[in-house]
Design goal:
The protein has a four-stranded antiparallel beta sheet. α2 crosses α6. The longest helix is centred in the middle third of the chain and has 21 residues. The protein has one domain: 3-Layer(aba) Sandwich (NADH Oxidase). With 189 residues, the protein is an alpha+beta fold. The chain has seven helices and four strands; from the N terminus they run ααβαααβαβαβ.
Length: 189
């Protein structure tokens, strides 16, 4: 078992995966670890949808790309627009051909759901890194609007996608990107 500092060094945004499936039993272990995350009022509002079918992952990628491109017409976000070239590429898979995709959802009416589910995502990613798996939070993959796809994922109208995590055995692990020093506004002693 790694110490926490070592674990933080292991966890990277992996976008290159071996063509090898992750056993469902291992995915269940990761989800159990994710549920150890703290949550406001201990509500534990998270629920997970797991996809390992490559065709379904591709359908979800295409759906998200279509919706993001349409949103670009309505929203004048320079950050979103910088993705236009890759989102317009039919061959680009926003999930980088990862063998597993996990949607972490939270109830629309729980104020702390974004923070709670984000913590669950972090726990899941650290648990995966401990087991030699790679993960990446893919926000570009969260724009699913097609009701049929949401139904297939089991995501009901009262829930929203908060985190979209890809998972698999890394083909390559990127180096550590530069990190800024803490920006401390003030310390009051």
């Amino acid at each position: 078992m790694s110490g926490f500092k070592e674990l933080m060094e292991k966890r990277r945004a992996v976008r290159d995966y071996e063509d090898r499936s992750v056993p469902v039993s291992l995915i269940r272990e990761l989800l159990t670890d994710a549920c150890e995350a703290p949550s406001g009022g201990n509500r534990q509002p998270w629920a997970f949808s797991v996809v390992t079918d490559k065709k379904m992952i591709r359908r979800l990628s295409d759906e998200s790309k279509k919706n993001l491109l349409a949103d670009m017409k309505a929203v004048r976000s320079p950050i979103l627009r910088m993705y236009r070239p890759i989102l317009s590429d039919e061959s680009f898979n926003v999930f980088y051909n990862a063998p597993c995709l996990i949607y972490i959802t939270g109830p629309k009416d729980v104020h702390s759901a974004v923070a709670d589910c984000s913590l669950a995502a972090a726990y899941l990613m650290f648990s995966a890194a401990e087991r030699g798996l790679g993960t990446c939070w893919i926000d570009l993959g969260s724009s699913i609007k097609d009701q049929g796809l949401l139904d297939e994922l089991g995501i009901t109208d009262d829930r929203r996608i908060i985190a979209t995590i890809i998972l698999g055995y890394p083909g390559a692990i990127p180096g550590k990107p530069p990190r800024n020093e803490p920006r401390i506004l003030k310390i009051i002693e």
